[in-house]
Design goal:
By secondary structure, the protein is mostly helical. Helices cover 67% and strands 0% of the residues.
């Protein structure tokens, strides 16, 4: 296709400036196509990894779901919901979380935002999990 377009440019009796403009347009067009394809591939790759990670969590639990003592500050609320099989909004309701980033929010970041110690927040989360599991 590129060769065909370039040969078309050569066959048309146009000025040198017109040829440069047409080539610039073609370069911009190809650049946009390459960027678009790259973006779509990255999006598909990240979505696939996200799905595989969630699928792995559900099927190959490294965490003992009966023991909430393994909750750590690096975990997100979404991760805790998946690992401990909690409803999506359970922790938000019990802990009074209104942050728009929930559930994609790390415990440590939420503790910092709400000016509480991560240890106290983790203790509250563990208690909430225990109450749900009863």
């Amino acid at each position: 296709m590129r060769k065909r377009l370039l040969s078309l440019i050569h066959t048309i009796n146009t000025s040198r400036i017109a040829k440069i403009i047409i080539l610039a347009i073609l370069i911009v067009f190809y650049t946009v196509v390459v960027i678009s394809i790259t973006h779509n591939l990255q999006y598909a790759y990240h979505n696939e990894r996200f799905y595989l990670n969630r699928h792995h969590l559900r099927n190959n639990r490294a965490t003992d779901v009966s023991n909430p003592d393994s909750v750590q500050a690096w975990m997100t609320f979404d991760y805790i919901n998946v690992v401990y099989r909690l409803p999506k909004d359970y922790l938000a309701t019990v802990l009074g979380i209104t942050n728009v980033q929930y559930p994609n929010l790390r415990i440590s970041k939420y503790a910092t935002l709400t000016k509480q110690s991560p240890e106290q927040l983790i203790t509250n989360i563990k208690e909430a999990i225990r109450r749900y599991k009863k």
